[in-house]
Amino acid sequence: MSQGRDDTGQFTKSVTDQEVLKVFDYEDDPVLTAREVAEGLRRFGVQITPEGVRNRLEEMDGNGLVSRKKLGAKAVGWWAEVAPELDSTTAETVDSRKESDEWESL
Which domain holds residue 25? Predict the structure, then answer.
């Protein structure tokens, strides 16, 4: 069995939608290339090729999570249409403070 494949030989998802969306959230530029997304994922400890990212982004585009625009002969820019989900601890804190004045300390 080769790296990135399951027992049946099918590719396994090596990156989640949330991980990809997190890259867009952390970068200063809202429009990124697949190579830039792959580099951003590496900073979070996720190893994936730009081609793998491109395939993942195309799937996410079909689900309305990201959009794209052709920028040149070979360049495509991608941007997030939604924000990544909050981690469970942060979501609980937000829910507990919805009706309070504690927002200044976030």
Answer: 17-83
Domain assignment of residue 52, yes or no: yes
Q: Tens digits of per-residue pLDDT, 31-63?
A: 999 999 999 999 989 989 999 999 999 999 999
* Domain-located, residue 30: yes
Q: Is 67 helix (H, G, I), strand (E, B) or coil?
A: strand
Nearest to 14 by CA among 25, 2, 22, 5: 5
Work out the angle at residue 51's Cα, subtended by the Cα atoms of residues 49 and 55, and round it to the nearest 5 degrees.
120
Q: CA-CA-CA-CA torsion for 23, 2, 6, 52, nearest 10 degrees?
A: 30
Coil, strand, or helix at residue 36? helix
Q: CA 21 → CA 30, 38, 76, 105, distances in Å?
A: 11, 12, 17, 25
pTM for the model stands at 0.70
Looking at the 3D structure of the chain, how many domains does it have? 1
